[in-house]
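Weekend entry, working from home. Most of the wet-lab plans are on hold until the incubator is repaired, so I used the time to fold the two sequences that have been sitting in the queue since the last round of cloning. Logging both here for the record. First:
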Amino acid sequence: MKILILHRVPYFKIEYHRGIDHVLHDVTYFGTRDALATLPPGLRCTQVERPGERSTFEEACTWLDGAPQDFDRVISMSEYELLDAAQLRERLGVDGAPVDQVMLSRDKVLMKSAVEQAGVRVPRFMPLTAFIDAGGTTPWSGATVLKPHRGASSVDVVVFDDQTQAYEAVAGKRSGVAELDGAEAALSDYQVEEFVDGRIRHFDGLIEQGKVLVLGASEYVGTCLEYAQGTPMGSFQIECSDETRAWVGRALDAVQIRNGSFHLEAIVHRGELVFLEVGNRVGGADVAATFELATGVHLPSCELRILLGEPVTDSLSAAPEDRSWYGWFVYPGHHLSGRTFEGFDGADAFRTSPETVTWHELPLGKPLPDHITYGAGETALAGIAVTDSPQETRSWMVRLFESLRIRTSVPAVPDMAAR
C-alpha cells in the first residue's frame, strides 16, 4: 500500500511505526523541514519537504503536479491538516472521510448545529456575522464567548461580561483578536456563544465503522483558556458511566466521526453534560500517554491501523480491574515569551514524589516558547502523575500548581558599542 502522511505532529507523539509496517508499505512523509527532522534515523520511508508558506493542500498539489503519483491512503494526525488530507483524498480519488464529513468535526458552528439537531444540548451560539447584523442581540444573556470556527488551544478566544460588551468590542475593533481588529476583519471565521459554567471534561477513545471500541473520561484542573492566559492546567481520569458512553456515542454519530481517534469536550452544568466541541484526532498534551498507561491501548497506532483498514478490536487490551488513576499536567511559558527559564520554586518535593510518573522540565537557561504549546521539551513543565483514585490524583495536581513558582530572567542585550 502507498501511504501519504501529512506530517506535522512530532514523530515521537505518534510513533507511526507502531501502527504502520514501514517495510510492508511504501510511506511518504510530506512536511516542513522542522517536522521532517523529527523522523527517526533509519526509518524506511520517502521524505518530501514543503516550504510551509501556503496551505498543506496547496503545496501538496504543487508537488504532485511536478511529480504525479497515486496513493492508497492520505493520512493526517494533526487537527490543523485534517481538511488538507480530505481535500487531497478527493483530488486523488482516495478512500477516507470526505471534506463535507471532516468539516463537521472542524467547523464549530456546523458541529454544534449537527449535535443540537441530534438532541444533545449545546451552548446557544451565533455566527459572528449574524450577531453583528442583529446589533448584538442574542437568545441568551450574560457572559458571552467569542471564538474562531476552527480554532484550537483557546487561541483567539475571549470571554466578555455580556453580549453588549462583546458587540461593542467587535464593532469597535477592540476585541483583542488581531484578525478581527484589523482593517479587513474576518467576521465569517468567528462565532459567539453563551458562557456555560461548570467543570469541563474530555472523553477520548477509538471508533471503528461507527462503533466506539474503547472510551476514557477525564476532568480538567483549570481550563484551556486559562492556560492560554498563563495558568497551569491538567486533567485526571474519572469513571465513565453507561449513560455517559451513550451520550458520547450520540455526539460522535451527529458529527459523522466513524473511524479513528476522538477527543470530545463537554461542560458539566447542573449535573447535565453540555457538548462543547469534538475532534477526530488524538487529544493533545499527554492524553495519549495517560490513556495507554491506564488501558494498554495506544490511540495513535490503533487509529492508523483503522485508517489502513486493519481491524483492531481483537488486539485491544482489556482494562485492568484494579486500575490506577493517571493525570497529566502542564505549566505554561508562552505568556513569558522573550524571557529565559531559570527553574521552579516549590518543585523539589514533586519531582521525586512517588506519584510522579514523568517530569519534563525545560532545561535551565532555555528561552520560553513564543507560542501556546502543551509539548514536553517546549513548555516550562509537562508531566504525568498517578494515584489510587481520581480524587487523589486531582488533589495532588492542585497541590502541585499551588506550590510552583516559575523563575525567569531577561536575556542580556549585546553591547553593540563594545564591538
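Second, folded right after the first finished:
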Amino acid sequence: MGFLDANQAKRRTGPRGRFDLLLLVALAGLACVGVVMVASSSIAVADSQHIGEFYFLRKHLLFLGFGLVAAGVAMRTELKLLEKYAFPLLALAFVLLMAVFVPHFGMRINGAHRWLNLGITSFQPVEAVKLVLVIYMASYLVRHRENIETRFLGLIKPLIVAGGIVGLLLLQPDFGSAMLVIAVTIAMVWLGGARPVFLILMGLPLMPALVIAATSESYRMKRLTSFMDPWKDPFNDGFQLTQSLMAIGRGEWLGVGLGSSVLKLSYLPEAHTDFIFAVIGEELGLVGILAVMGLFALAVGRGLYLGLKGVEVGQRFAGYVAFGISLMIGLQAMVSIGVNLGALPTKGLTLPLISYGGSSMVLTCAMAGVLLRATFEINRALDARQGTQRVAVSLAAEAGPVAATAPAPEREMEVA
C-alpha cells in the first residue's frame, strides 16, 4: 500500500507537461480571422448561387467544429501511439490516394481526381496525407538516425515514399501539393542531420519529373506564362492574378473596411478559398496583411523552436513532428500568400486555418492538435530535466563540506 501511495504521489508531483501558450494563441487567432474573412468573402458567392448568403459561413463553422474535436482528440493522444502505427498510417495514405481513381467512389471535378465521395460530403485525401507523411518521416528519422547522418542509402526509403506520393498527386493532378510534399520531406531530412550533398542527390531524381509535369499540360504552361506577365492578357489567362493584385492594391495601408471589398463581388475568383488573402488585403490593408503574416510567423517559429528543444532533451519524435507540421503549415501559407501577391504561379493551395474548405480545415486543425501535443510532451521533458538539475544543485549544496573532503577518485566515480 505504501509503495502504491508513493507512486501516486510521485505522479501527482512530477512534471505534468503544458501546451505552448503562444502557439495556441497564434493558431486560435488564425482560426478567428478565418471565420471573419469567410463570412465577409463568401456572401456574394453564395448569393450568386442562390443558396443563401450565409451558406458557406455555416458550413465553415461546422467544419471548424469538427476540426476542434479532431484537435482535442489529437491533443490527448500520446505521440508514442502515432509513432507505433506510423507505417500502417502510411499504407492507408497510399490507399486513399489511389482510391480517388476508383469509379463512383472517386470524384472528378474540373478535370481533377482529388476527392472521395463519402455520400453526405466529399473528402480530399491529400490533406490527411500531409499529416501522415510528417508522422512517418519523424518515425523514420528516429529509427534510422545514424544512417541518415552518415550514409546516402539512409535516404532511399524517404525518397521512395515521397516519390510515390508525388507520383500519385501528379496523376490527380495536384502539382501544388506535390511540391509541398517534396519541400517538407527534404527539409525534415535536413533537420534530421543529413548532409547537404545527400539532399542534393536526393532532389536530383525528382527535378526532371517536376519539370515534365509543369510543362506537359497546357493549363500549367498558361499559369506560368500569365504569372510572368499577367497584364498581357488580363481578361483571360491573367484574370485571377490581376484581380488579386487590384484587390490588394485597393487596400493600401488600412484597407477599405471589413465587408467593403469590391473585387469579391464576382470579380475575384475563389474569393473565399484560394484568394481569400487578397480580400484580407483589400478590406484590412497592409496592417491586416502584416497581422496575418505575423500570426503565421509566430505559430511556425514557436513550432520550430520547441522542435529544436525536443531534440535537445531526447524527445526526438516529438521534435521532428513539431518540425514537420510547422514546416507544412508555414510552407503552405507562404505559397498561398505568394500566389495572391503574384510572387508565385497559381497553385490552388488554401491558406491554412483561414480559407473555406472542409477537408483542409478539419485536417489542419488535427495537425495543429498533434503539434500542440508535441509541445506538451517536450515541455514535460524540459520540466523534468530542470527539476533534476535543481535537485542535483540542492543536494550538492547540502553536501558541500563533506564533498570537499572526499577523495578525488570517489568523486569521479560519483560523477560517472
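Plan for Monday: verify the second prediction. Confidence is low (pLDDT under 50) at residues 1-12, 410-416.
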